[in-house]
Write a structure and sequence with these properties.
Chain lengths: ~160, ~160
DNA sequence: CTAATATGAATGAAGG
DNA sequence: CCTTCATTCATATTAG
């Protein structure tokens, strides 16, 4: 079912179904998520290049892809946060003890745990992380995680 | 076959009522289609909320659902249009009058007349609309239709 | 039961 | 940053 979502850099290979848009691999997603959850939600140009270099080890990716990823990530995070915040607000609207049974506001129900409030990427070492990174390039990922400590320094959200 | 507003039980194995995704009821579909055919193909945020409120009377629905619905509607309309436009173009390619009978684009063996160029939702009052809205909440629907006049048209550029 | 289709939802990319 | 478009994934429904 899952057909190599990897974006090949050489479209000349006729055997491949020419993937027009980049599909980040699980390992790449893990890395990006980790960085994002580390507080780097808006990496500067320099950092973006670094991140791209890290991701490249797991598949072809460009600076633009990383840039877009973080941009979309921020947007989606904010939107999701607003959404469930609004829902909560409505749920708690007025503490007048009224028995309302209508879900008149939002019924967004998704099967995933979503909510990046706490994913567990910060710690990993266990969970599904291992599942993703088995066999191929586990060593690379470890090194990258160690390197994460050096970067940092980027508080989320910046005046701008 | 009456479907309880999206909260129907599992078809066979009574496991978890894992409601994966929202299923708009016939009434809701009618409303959405009507709005879409009224010219509002891309409702702004405010309008989306209003639409959601209207739909809520017929079943649980969130702003996101409405947002997704219109987005998908636009996309698919355009895609469909492009698709059959391409087919037409192929049929008329070169005025040499060649008898080509190849369906290079798609099989398309469905009984529908496809092409939502004219569905009839704009007028309703007749057709299958009545069939949908009988018995339950016809009154609500009428009021909603009257309210439709208040909304301004959000004409969007057809060309990208 | 399996295959195909319809459609809600997620996401990469781009424009303003 | 925000909105929008195009593509893709996942699932519900229907046809065989």
């Amino acid at each position: 079912m899952d057909q190599e979502g990897g974006a090949s850099q050489s479209p000349s290979t006729s055997t491949e179904p020419v993937r027009s848009r980049w599909s980040p691999k699980p390992e790449q997603i893990l890395i990006l998520e980790s960085i994002f959850n580390s507080g780097i939600v808006n990496p500067p140009k320099d950092e973006t290049v670094r991140i791209r270099k890290m991701l490249e080890k797991f598949g072809a990716v460009g600076d633009t892809n990383v840039f877009y990823w973080f941009q979309n990530r921020r947007s989606r995070s904010r939107r999701r946060q607003r959404q469930l915040q609004a829902a909560t607000a409505v749920a708690a609207t007025s503490r007048g003890a009224e028995n309302h049974q209508n879900m008149t506001t939002m019924s967004m129900h998704h099967p995933y745990s979503n909510s990046e409030i706490d994913l567990g990427f910060g710690s990993l070492s266990n969970s599904l992380a291992n599942n993703f990174l088995n066999g191929s390039s586990s060593s690379q990922v470890s090194s990258f995680f160690l390197d994460l400590s050096s970067s940092s320094g980027g508080c989320e959200s910046n005046n701008g």
